[in-house]
């Protein structure tokens, strides 16, 4: 995720911040779906701040391994990728770190390195320096109401808890607030995906955080997840969207303006236990990365920052002539497509009114009124007018479908309140003064100002 276009020379006003020292890391949270595999050499740790949500995914190897990288798209954010591009024969790599938080999340990469030194696994001797590499996705903006990022505390807790053979799928780790399909206004929830293959003694694993501008596509060409605009076909194909450009980006789409630029990225890792030369490992990275354009369409745009890391643990000698490195890369490419598909979580129900609306008195509605603060940059004012409930964003940013300075009606139904529109937005109020928007994995919580309410 690269920065936006050059801003005016005047220094921006200081931004309000949140004290991340009060946050509690959630480590190796068990997912509803998980990838299980047998590979003791490869350990994985995930860390999350549910207040974001945002997180980090750490891949730790049992000894130093060889690595390569392929960087694409117009907005990458990486650490130590230049070193891997030198193509040294010696295995130097300890860990690969994938993180949310845009460039702020790169702190996670160096944090893993310092944890290895602090724990005595690596030192200051020139031949025992820890080497972690990593890349980030952009998970701020309109997908959450705060600017929490994966930091040193979270990354070090994740690497220290790394375990073999288990990888949570969907909105976990670095994929906690990932989205796809922004080019077409789909804005579908995404996450992290993984797949594993074994052919004889050969092991291949593929992992990815899918945060692409394009849409995820299955092997039949169907779009897997999209908040469709009204009138779109139920069985939506990627070709429908691509061939329909620029019309498929309308109505309501005004183009990719500079405030929305360079905020999408897919960061991935492919690992094999076969010993490879630097040239073979680099070609593995390039071939698998290229293959991902089948499962994500379009892929590696000017507004993506796609990065793929390739690793060889060198546990198996080079293959016999009948099984070449190109075969490994081809198998890995298919595994990566499976990984892409497995990243897609169950999407929230549409926010249309559900069931018979509850009957709420004016007093009931007035009891919900007040100022609810989600973070230093986002707050929502709830008010009652004429027997209806309204919401208005009162800080410098919108609260999803509720813009700053404009009132939107909150429509009651059997489960709470909704703001009708293309994108899911549901609100539930608790008796303790808590407001939850879109309850579930991506929920945003706020407390009513203590001076307000009953």
Compact description:
With 454 residues, the protein is α+β, with helices and mostly antiparallel strands. Helices cover 16% and strands 31% of the residues.
Tell me about this structure.
Belongs to the peptidase S58 family. This is Peptidase S58 DmpA. With 454 residues, the chain is of the alpha+beta class. Strands 1, 3, 4, 5, 6, 7, 8, 12, 13, 15 and 17 form an eleven-stranded mixed β-sheet that branches. The longest helix is centred in the last third of the chain and has 18 residues. It is globular and about 80 Å long.
List the helices and strands and how they pair.
Elements: E1 26-27, E2 34-36, E3 42-49, E4 54-71, E5 78-79, H1 81-85, E6 93-99, H2 107-118, E7 132-136, H3 152-160, E8 163-164, E9 166-168, E10 179-180, E11 188-189, E12 192-199, E13 202-211, E14 215-216, H4 238-243, E15 265-274, H5 278-291, E16 296-297, E17 307-316, H6 325-342, H7 362-368, E18 370-375, E19 378-385, E20 388-393, E21 407-413, E22 416-418, E23 426-429, E24 434-437, E25 444-448
Parallel strand pairs: 6-7, 15-17
Antiparallel strand pairs: 1-3, 2-9, 3-4, 3-8, 4-6, 4-17, 5-7, 10-11, 12-13, 13-15, 14-16, 18-19, 18-25, 19-20, 20-21, 21-22, 22-23, 23-24, 24-25
Pfam family, one: Peptidase_S58
GO molecular function: aminopeptidase activity
Biased composition (Polar residues): 8-21
């Amino acid at each position: 995720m690269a920065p936006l276009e050059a801003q005016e020379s005047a220094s921006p006003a200081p931004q309000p911040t949140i004290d991340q020292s009060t946050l509690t890391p959630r480590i190796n949270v068990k997912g509803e779906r998980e990838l299980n595999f047998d590979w003791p050499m490869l350990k994985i740790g995930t860390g999350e701040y549910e207040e974001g949500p945002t997180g980090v995914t750490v891949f730790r190897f049992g000894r130093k391994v060889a690595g390569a990288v392929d960087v694409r798209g117009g907005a990458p954010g990486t650490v130590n990728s230049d070193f891997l591009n030198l193509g040294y024969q010696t295995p130097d790599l300890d860990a690969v770190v994938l993180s949310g938080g845009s460039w702020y999340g790169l702190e996670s990469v160096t944090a893993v390195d310092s944890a290895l030194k602090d724990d005595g696994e690596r030192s200051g001797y020139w031949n025992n320096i820890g080497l972690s590499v990593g890349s980030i996705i952009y998970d701020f903006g309109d997908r959450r109401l705060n600017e929490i990022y994966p930091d040193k505390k979270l990354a070090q807790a994740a690497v220290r808890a790394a375990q073999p053979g288990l990888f949570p799928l969907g909105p976990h780790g670095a994929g906690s607030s990932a989205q796809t399909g922004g080019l077409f206004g789909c804005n579908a929830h995404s996450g992290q995906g993984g797949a594993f293959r074994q052919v004889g003694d050969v092991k291949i694993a593929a992992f990815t955080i899918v945060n692409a501008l394009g849409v995820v596509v299955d092997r039949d060409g169907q779009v897997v997840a999209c908040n469709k605009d009204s009138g779109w076909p139920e069985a939506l194909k990627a070709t429908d969207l691509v061939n329909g450009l620029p019309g498929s980006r309308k109505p309501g789409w005004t183009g990719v303006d500079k405030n929305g630029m360079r905020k999408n990225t897919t960061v991935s890792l492919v690992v094999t236990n076969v010993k490879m030369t630097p040239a073979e490992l680099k070609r593995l990275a390039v071939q698998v990365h290229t293959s991902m354009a089948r499962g994500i369409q379009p892929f590696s745009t000017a507004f993506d920052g796609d990065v793929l890391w390739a690793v060889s643990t060198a546990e198996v000698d080079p293959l016999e002539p009948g099984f070449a490195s190109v075969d490994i890369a081809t198998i890995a490419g298919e595994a990566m497509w499976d990984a892409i598909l497995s990243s897609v979580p169950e999407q929230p129900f549409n926010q249309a009114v559900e069931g018979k609306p509850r009957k709420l008195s004016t007093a009931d509605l007035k009891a919900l009124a007040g100022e609810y603060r989600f973070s230093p940059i986002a707050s929502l004012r709830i008010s009652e007018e004429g027997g209806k409930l309204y919401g208005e964003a009162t800080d410098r940013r919108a609260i999803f479908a509720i813009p700053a300075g404009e009132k939107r009606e909150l429509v009651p139904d059997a489960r709470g309140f909704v703001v009708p529109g293309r994108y899911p937005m549901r609100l539930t109020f608790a008796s303790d003064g808590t407001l939850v928007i879109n309850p579930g994995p991506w929920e945003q919580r706020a407390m009513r100002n203590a001076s307000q309410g009953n």
